[in-house]
Amino acid sequence: MNKFLKVLGVFAFASVLFSCDKEEDVADIVQVHKPNMTINIASTINAQEGDIVPFTLNFDEPVGREFHFYVVRLNQSSASGVDSSVSESYSNTAFQQTFVVPAGATSFTGEIVIEEDIDNDDNEQLVLTVGDTRTSAVLFTPSIVTINIDNVVKDELTLDFHFNKDFGVAAYSSSLCEFESELSGNGYDIDFIVYDASYNDLSVFDAQTGACEESLSMNLADYADGVYHITSFLYTNGELDLASLSFPLLGLAEFEIPVTVDYYRAGSFKGLYAQDAADRFTSMTPEGTESYVMSVEVYTDVDGQRKFKVFNDNTGAISGMGKHVKVNKKK
Fold first, then answer.
1. How many CB atoms lie within 10 A of CB 323?
2. What value, to the nearest 5°, has the Cα angle with vertex 283 and ends 282 and 288?
3. Domain ranges in the chain?
4. Contact 40, 32 (CB under 8 A)
5. Tens digits of residue pLDDT in 250-270
6. Three-state SS for 57?
7. 143 touches 132 (CB < 8 A)
């Protein structure tokens, strides 16, 4: 009879262990005595994008084992799951950040990172519960924290140049970023050159790396007020203009290679610029050809704020400038 009760007790203990949720802290099963934990963080915090918000956990005695501590984003937040390090997917459309507190700790410091982004997100709020009932190794009261996030406008305009294109004939297919000449081993490489308003080359080599594709950052500290023109230069074409004369691209029809530019000033504005059709390269364009892409003006407004304008100097069409109205994001 005693053996039966011992076996029954073992099965009951195992049942308790395995019935627990995978994320639930089971320390209360193996640690009867629990330290008291105090959470130190202000209830309201003003922060900027890029800031780090710390919090401290203090224990009245060393903790008996390692345990998980959770910070959970509440649904009344206007800040989304990508606006901070509280970004792990969690149930009920919430997000969380998990911290691991080591055994023997008498204090622990965690950090919540407020992420920088490219959107004009003024007056966002991140509402968090610091501490969650899944943590059962210690005794504590969760803290509700509201972080008011100020938008930060960066001093640089980023231009990401795209020109990759799929092409092929019959059973053969490739892309400009993958293509390599069977004659020379060269690939297809477009560089981007920055000129001043008078078309003097400024020797900016950031978008002349040989990468497929290229990127350029224009920092206000490096550019005086004025107009800057950007052109595309076909450094190598991988003999694509001759490829249609031989296998495997025999009979390949000429195709256009448009340049598009994703541009953004973090915290201010963003957009997509497309090169005019008349200025585009084609698969038959020879190496060494140069063509206009876009222009950027750096200017100072009436309030003394330095800004960017993205436009087409040939047509005068403005693609983007200054601060755009905030676009509501799905939270």
1. 16
2. 75
3. 23-150, 156-321
4. no
5. 778 889 999 999 999 887 888
6. strand
7. no
Token look-up 């081993």 returns 185
pTM, to two decimals: 0.67
Q: How many CA atoms lie within 13 A of 159 on its CB side?
A: 29
CA 191 – CA 208 distance, rounded (Å): 5
Q: Select from 243, 233, 246 the least CA-distant residue to 284.
A: 243
- Maximal C-alpha separation, the chain: 100
Q: Which residues of the chain have pLDDT under 50?
A: 1-22, 26-29, 324-331
Spell out the long-range contacts of 55-60 with Cβ–Cβ below 8 A and sequence spacing 24 or more: 55/109, 55/110, 55/111, 55/112, 55/130, 56/107, 56/108, 56/109, 56/110, 57/101, 57/107, 57/108, 57/109, 57/110, 58/106, 58/107, 59/35, 59/105, 59/106, 59/107, 59/138, 60/35, 60/36
Which residue type is seen at 331?
A: K
Residue with tokens 């390599």: 180
**Residue 39, Cα to own-chain centre: how many angstroms?**
31
Nearest-angstrom CA–CA distance, 180 and 244: 14
Q: Topology of 23-150 in CATH?
A: Immunoglobulin-like (2.60.40)
Q: Are 62 and 37 in contact (CB under 8 A)?
A: no
d(CA 251, CA 330): 48
Q: Residue 173 and residue 221: Cα distance in Å, rounded? A: 44
Task: Tell me the CB-side half-sphere exposure of residue 209, using CA atoms within 13 A.
Answer: 9
CA distance 27 to 32: 8
Q: What is the pLDDT of residues 69-82, one digit of tens each?
A: 999 999 888 887 77
